[in-house]
Amino acid sequence: MYEKTFPNKRFKHTLEFLKKHISTTETILDLGVENPFSKILKAEGFQVKNTTGEDLDNNQTALQKEEYTVFTAFEIFEHLLNPYTILENVKSDKLLISIPLRLWFSPAYRSKTDMWDRHYHEFEDWQLDWLLEKTGWKIIDSQKFTHPVKKIGFRPLLRFFTPRYYIVYAEKVK
Prior knowledge:
By secondary structure, the protein is an alpha/beta fold. It is built from six helices and six strands, in the order αβαβαβαβαβαβ. The protein has helices spanning 9-21, 36-43, 61-65, 83-89, 125-134, 154-161; strands at residues 27-30, 47-50, 70-74, 94-100, 137-145, 165-172. The chain has a six-stranded mixed beta sheet with strand order 2-1-3-4-6-5, with helices on both faces. One of its GO terms (biological process) is methylation. This is Methyltransferase. InterPro entries: SAM-dependent_MTases_sf.
């Protein structure tokens, strides 16, 4: 439905992965303020609530107060100093997380104009897997995918072949 209006391949891939595991009858708590992707989810029939922009490193109240059956965090964990605490406070039994992967040929992202738009963590896949395992989650499905850019050069060429994103569906271990 939205294939031609997706801003990029990442949204299309993330939506397909989410639809594979989550029903529109479930309620999603999406970490972060409402954004273009949460609007796409709502338009696709998903019930989505977003956090309100609070400093999630210090305040996980929304994770405990909101009613939800699925927790999502799409390209948010790399901005957090303490994703471990977030994962410990999730009260649903299902989660989907996507992260940008650490690339050997590119430094961690740091905006020159926005002091909040920085990556404190750029994970390798095994690091996110370990974090999930240590906080009581079992990975059911995961995928890596590329994110090519329309530029000329060595790094843009590498982006055609090197996975940039990692997405995981996990369930709480009981």
